[in-house]
Amino acid sequence: MQTKGHSRNFxxxxxxxxxxxxxxxxxxxxxxxxxxxxGYLGTKGSFEEGYPHALPATFIHGVYDDVPVVYTxxxxxxxxxxxxxxxxxxxxxxxxxxxxxxxxxxxLRYDRQLDLRxxxxxRYLRWRSPSGKTIDINFERFASxxxxxxxxxxxxxxxxxxxxxxxVQGSINxxxxxxxxxxxxxxxxxxxxxxxxxxxxTRHSRIELGMGATMRISGTEASLQVSxxxxxxxxxxxxxxKSKQTVxxxxxxxxxxxxxxxxxxxxxxxxxxxxxxxxxxxxxxxQAWDEVWQQSDILIEGDSTAAFAVRYNLFQxxxxxxxxxxxxxxxxxxxSGFGYRGHIFWDTEIFMLPFFLFTQSAIAxxxxxxRWHTLPGARRKASHYGYKGAMFAWESADTGDxxxxxxxxxxxxxxxxxxxxxxxxxxxxxxxxxxxxWNYWQATGDDEWMQQRGAEIxxxxxxxxxxxxxxxxxxxxxxxxxxxxxxxxxxxxxxNAFTNRMAQWHLEKAIAVYDWLAQKFPERATELEEKxxxxxxxxxxxxxxxxxxxxxxxxxxxxxxxxEGFFQLEDINLADYQGRDRSMQAILGIEKTNKYQVIKxxxxxxxxxxxxxxxxxxxxxxxxxxxxxYYAPRTDITYGSSLGPAVxxxxxxxxxxxxxxxxxxxxALMVDLEDNRGNTSDGIHGATAGGVWQAVIFGFxxxxxxxNGPVANSHLxxxxxxxxxxxxxxxxxxxxxxxxxxxxxxxxxxxEYLHLSLSxxxxxFPSEASEHQTSPPASPASPAPxxxxxxxxxxxxx
Length: 798
What we know:
It is built from 21 helices and 32 strands. It is α+β, with helices and mostly antiparallel strands.
């Protein structure tokens, strides 16, 4: 049964996003919202015919190029969308030529739809030209999920009240820009029996791109012409149209880069020569999507808006995750916008990766392997700052070197530029990445990946902590000074609790991984010892840090101080600022914000979330309630960071604050569909999309990962009558069908799993991985860790 919901901008069915009016003021945000992709590339939802001041963009994973000031960015690739319709006079001899475009003539009907189920973007129009000719136009496009190098368009044309000549032009625009900067130099272009091709190369990184295009027509006969205007090869078809008769034009594009093949143009033209028609390509695309949704879908009943919007966020993750390339990762704005220049943050490992980990583990593996491939860049950064090991970049691109800009323009045109300190001080990412690597291992039992790649990530990043901590002889404790925590409103603090505890956790796991490696793969352990200069003294140093690192925690009240001196800062009542439409930092200024107890995004609460099932980090109702009561009212949850609302939703659910949980969940859920932060034009909020999945599964679904498999203790929001999803955990799928007022668990599968876990060699796991089968519960953000001393540790106690 189809349900239907609506908001101020859209109508929603179970799977389809519908826009019924075109608003030029929302042009750029809607270009983002209607993004399509296939894990290889993403294309914004710009119009085929163009529009004044539009920002069409196609981004391909890994295609970076140098740019002044901000080091490097994803290059906007040649635009494959141009498909222009020209209505001529009643005969080819007449000179009146009216090009279809929405800023001219009159729109009599407008309906744009994004079908999430198959990644199909459609637009239905009835348009009256300035001279009074009316025509129905139906555009469709998709980036094939069955073949990542194939892009497909179709256009149905039906004159309503005239006979006459219609011309359709299908082009490749070889002059794309990154907001005023063109990364491409022309190499060559030409035509083949099938159509046209274009060859381009990035100016600095020297990545070559080849695109081919062909065009077919049905419903009439038409002459085909080829124009090879420099940088803009075009296929043109002209035919005599009759009123009420529909003609269909298909345009198929292929694209390759030198990252996949030495001869991109040859690859593009060869594939073009052997492609079937639109219907066959569409069917293959639908089959590929069906397989993905079988594993990844979430069914919600009783809330039509949430039912669609959750799927929308998952769709945006699915089209951004690379299925065939382990040298790329997902940028903060996915492949949907120019925001953050296509750079990769901790957003990927902590917020986006858990969705893939439990539904598409091969993509999760690729995302983590990207960090292994970029270890040389992390080592260069550590060396630059005078540290050992690997120091992961706050913003990373193709090499792993730091690409966070040093400066940003201030709000005052005549004022000074603003120094960006994240690159130097926000170092918790060095534990966040190993956290994700460990959790991947716990969830999958992938010993091969851990010994070949994961162990090196975890161990080399741990070496960094050994050189970064400072020993305070008066306190007889280790400190980490001069950092930025998850809360980025305070730019120079000492002993941030999140950073210190995550570093401690990381060192615990590094010792456990080393011991496992030495026992199971001694040759690899010796290899890494030599490569990383990992000595027994270094590992002993880690043990000392674990035992003595400073953590500001009041055992009686369970209140954790966010960083040293936080409680001495001036307090603030955010209720006094009701009605604002900006962040507190924008209101107070950077310097003043540093002096207040105001938080950009959950810091202590984020730590509690990530560690909530860690064996040696108490996560009880008292600790959560105490820290929630203190920190939640001081968090700028609406205007601070888009990363915050989903985390608050999960913890509020744990505390039984159902209405509050749902309220902040909806902030996260609709961040792009309603552009509630005013920056959707920069691209999709990828971390928020990942946070939405976690809020549904671990918050409302109440999933906990036990020794015997996932268990649900649901607390569904008011109105939700059913929540259905599946999780992949240690080689088995677990189906959950949760209903209001019912604690529904995957009992059959859990009993089966329990039986299998007690057998010597459970199916789907090699005997070497059998020690993983009794590892402890995982964190809701991803399967979480036990300490090395946990009785259920998968690695022998050190």
